[in-house]
Amino acid sequence: MRIALKIAYDGTKFHGFAIQPKVRTIEGEISRYLQKISKEKKTQKIKIQSASRTDQGVSAKGNIVVFDINTSFKETIYPLQTKLRDIWIRGATQVSEEFNPRYAHKRWYRYYLPDKSIESYQLKQAGHLFQGEHNFTNYTKDTTKNPCLKIDKITITHKKNFYLIDITAQRFLWNQVRRMVAAMEKMGKNKINPATIEKTLNDSCHHKSFGIAPPEYLMLMDVQYKNMTFTPFNKAQKNIENITQYYHMRALMFENMAETPKS
Fold this sequence. Notes:
Helix content is about 30%, strand content about 25%. By secondary structure, the chain is α+β, with helices and mostly antiparallel strands. Strands 1, 2, 3, 4, 5, 6, 7, 8, 9 and 10 form a 10-stranded mixed beta sheet that branches.
């Protein structure tokens, strides 16, 4: 049986997604517990495919993992969700043997950019420059993939002390979103102008890097496939709500700590 899971996770708790020796990773944790649940011989590793191998520090609300296992749907999902820590199963479905999560219809990332010293109009203008089809050679170090792709949409909203930058496309290059955000931030702070960004997108021979934004502020919001739905798991929602309440409390504590003492 091939099963697809929609998972959320706190990327700051792991050393990236892909399995690495002697460190805790998202793929490693899922694989380790599936091995215990499976009836396969312990020497036979369970291989996991994913829609996105997020970098260390990057979190997800809706990444997709797929694996083959010889236990039933119920025997697999319910024990797994009780064992995982800092990873939450938000949904699951059975898929065909040919299904590959890499071939998604759409991916959606959100970056939480602190709004300090950033002009809203300039930031939104920078986002507009990245929409459409471009050559993103200057926004990745991966030379093995085709750098020409289409950014479907970039929307920017403001919430509390952050700009929420939502970016959707069928696929992305390694580090592309964080490098785009770094360029957008520089334009939002009037350190570069629109022509500078345009040149990096239209002239692949013009090599320019604007740096890379921190991974802790990036989240993979969702990965979508045509004609595919997931059975939701309410336990994950309740667990995330409890953690949200805890962090809201901690944020309030530190806000109070930062207040200027009364004389």
